[in-house]
Amino acid sequence: MATTLRPVAAAALLAAASLALAAPASAQQDTRARVQQMVAQFQPLRFTPPTPRQVRLSNGVQVFLQEDHSLPLLNVNLVRKVGVVNLPDSLWAAGWQADGLMRTGGTTTLPPDSVDRLVEFYALGLGFQTGYEESSAYVSGLSRHRDVMLGLLFDMLRNPRNDSSRIRETIAQVEESWRRRNDQPASILNRAWNQVMYGDHPLAKTMSTPEEARTLTPDRLRTVDAMLFCPDRMIVGVTGDFDTRAMIAKLEESFRGWGRCPAGMRPTPPVRYPQGPRVVLIEKDVNQSNIQMGQAGGIRVANTPEYFAAQVADFLLGGGGGFNSRLLQRVRSDSGFAYGAYSNWGAETDREGIFAASAATRANKTVGAIALMQTVIASMVSEPVTASDVRLAQDNETNSFIFGFESPAQIVGRQIAYALDGLPANWFDLYLRGIQTVTPEQVRQVVERYLHSDRLITVVVGNPTAFDRPLSTLGPVTTMRVEDIRR
Amino acid sequence: MRCRRLTAALALALGTAPLAAQQPSAGERLPVVKYVLPNGMTFLLLRKEGAPTVSFVTQFRAGGVDEWTGISGTAHLFEHMLFKGTPTLGTRDYAAEQRMFPRIDTVADSLTAEFRKGASADTTVMARLRARLRALEDSARQYVVSNELDRVLTENGAQNLNASTSNDGTNYYFALPANRAELWFVLESDRVRNPVLREFYSERDVVMEERRLRVETQPMGLLREEFSEAAFRVHPYGRPVVGFASEVQTLSRNAVLEYFHKYYGPNNAVVAITGDIDTTQMKRWADQYFANIPAGEPYRPVVTQEPPQHGERRIEVEYDANPFVLIGYHVPNAVHADAPALRVLASILTGGRTSRLVQRLVVRDHWAAQVSAGQAPGARYPRLFMFGAAPIAPHTTQEIEGAIYEELERLQREPPTDFEMQRIRNSAEYGSLSRLDNAFYLAIQLASSEALWNDWTRTFRDDGAVQRVTAEDVQRVARTYFSRTNRTVATLVRPPRPAPLGGTN
Q1: Which positions in chain B touch A324 (Cβ < 8 Å)?
Q2: What is the reported pTM?
């Protein structure tokens, strides 16, 4: 109600009076009490998630299919768990640009312009993605264009031309991206962070340099295309308006004659994260500082109490817990220091990831905000999470699981992700169950063991002359020039 | 391979593609139930097959354009405040909180009074008042259960919990598991009836950080803001929705509450509920929870109209970043008869790699890293048809401008080709179906169309209208709107020498 505010008191009182007359007794109740009462009485949700059809093509390619005839639309995805990091160093840049050029460079029988015209005439969403450790291709469109969609996608996958006119276009684009790389503080932070955390590892690279781009040739690109996109351990997902049997036959036809993958891929080189504490400053004349701090995460994705406890810890510190996470509560709601303040405790199935927390704050609160973030991270040990905190994370998981099954694309996409990572098909159930068994003590232990607020690596992009106090009050500062960020 | 068959298929489609007749689009045929309460609050209910989830969107006809001088950013700050709770949610002792508000506001008012002195303001006094304001608000936190609304929703598995403010309106949304749908009615009816603007001044600081994040440290954000201000001299579309820094910093709890009382009546609200719902039950709950909220003032569209422009306007924005150019032409609002042809024109020029400007500037000549076109910064009132482009050095924004004007002149002289027109019809057909795929996105579209045009089908009718646009229509709008005098151009340029390091906190 607004009755405390003098200028509107009269109107507010009137509104209050009319409410009192008009509202039924129920509407006057205490909302908190009412919510508690209601939540206690909700019936459990009855829902059996649909299971996508799973088949293996004659060449061993695994396919997940789920029909959905509500709209005449079709989506096809192809994914492999190899990416540019798995290429020899000499082919890194070709791998990084391969996805764009597969889309724009034409095929051996279709010039680039013809591909563009087909894609746009049939209103197709069609593209490729060559990521660090994953490569994918997708096409979406009206289901009546099924044969055009698959014909074009497989032609582009199997017979890429990498036309030299489009290579020149790519080089021009890379050169301009390189010129623009320091225009935004967040881009500087991201690139500096990767360099600090990954050093010389290929995971440190975030963009091609112009010099690298100028080495692109159709031959190099074709070599890379063939290494990244080939049938061995490829996984296909199909959703939408199609007939499963006919689709399988169509996929068999599309893969026919496509041979084994060439040799030459390497496993991801081992990652070694640096030790903190360390403060790195990159000067940029802006009135808001971009901050990221973190360390090696120590945790792998696995069906272990430790992994689930780390997930709950991250939720409560600055991940999925939203406004009730400690970082957002303290840095934003209580202090007004930042619009966003988040954490992410990364983990992979085959190695540890990075724990990181980030925020952007006005220049004259920079050091105060960093100190506050360190305190909040430390509070996970000094003020351990309570049973009620853990219940919040658990209730959220239990009640929101249904949103993982809203669309066939989500359901199939998740099965593909599990298969790629070597997780069991019922990982979703295992995950839910794992989260439910987490105790506050386990959260405290995992945080105490792995999160060391006194050994964080902190990277700041901002204008030190406007900071509230010298950054050196946090520890020895290394200044990195923007020119020294290699990519 | 299949190249010949594909080429044949293209030729076939060009020759025989069916032109959509005047039949209603798939969106118009959605079984939406419209339910209006006596107080004017409108509910759009759509049952959609799928998982047991329900999406809720409330759109108020209250946006940036509805602010008055001196309070820019109020619509947006109020949007943040609607998450702060009510007299019975978010508090330990509401009476104690209420007693503190006038004391806190008095300090805030004194701070603003000092700020108003401009250059002669005493910075020591201001620092003292700021510290005092902060201390008082911190002391009030002993009575606050901060983010309790968020906690209830997080516990109950809510998704997509957020809100957004535009020039034309403000949206609040989240989705719940279907068995918990009644929670939305309890929480939404409480907060739109009884919002408490607690933690007000720290949230004002948060919004200032949002402004720095999106505008002040972003060359494109800054360029866009100054571009709108140059193009609209009178109409409030020229004001940034996030607000001007000086005004956001001095917004008072009273002004924001005044805005709420003026615009947040139930008659100004449209709610869209989509997903696994029983429409009869939704109507019952709508009655039970919202019918007793008294109607507010009827919505009155902005009276101000942007006068015709009498000459090209050009501005430069200096920033330590690479160049970019924005070009805008005044065009009518989104439901004007020419709007579909303008959409088609945008697609001919920049909709994909085969479009004229992308083909020329990006694919062929390598003059531009990107070029795009669209209409902004709103839909309800006459707006701008905008081009945006980033040159590739050594090419300049002037060269890009020249190419854009040449292509506009070419469209004025020669109609688009059959291929271009059919490509756009096909794309519109795909878009008319794919936009129906997601329950949450559907709720956003329904609420927005009804709030803007009092007609939820309106947005879907445009799909058909785009498909019926003729080459002559495109040529006509190209001649009508794209004149030099109707144009505003904003260019991002690097300052002659790097600006000295210095804060503007």
Answers
A1: 147, 150-151, 154
A2: 0.94
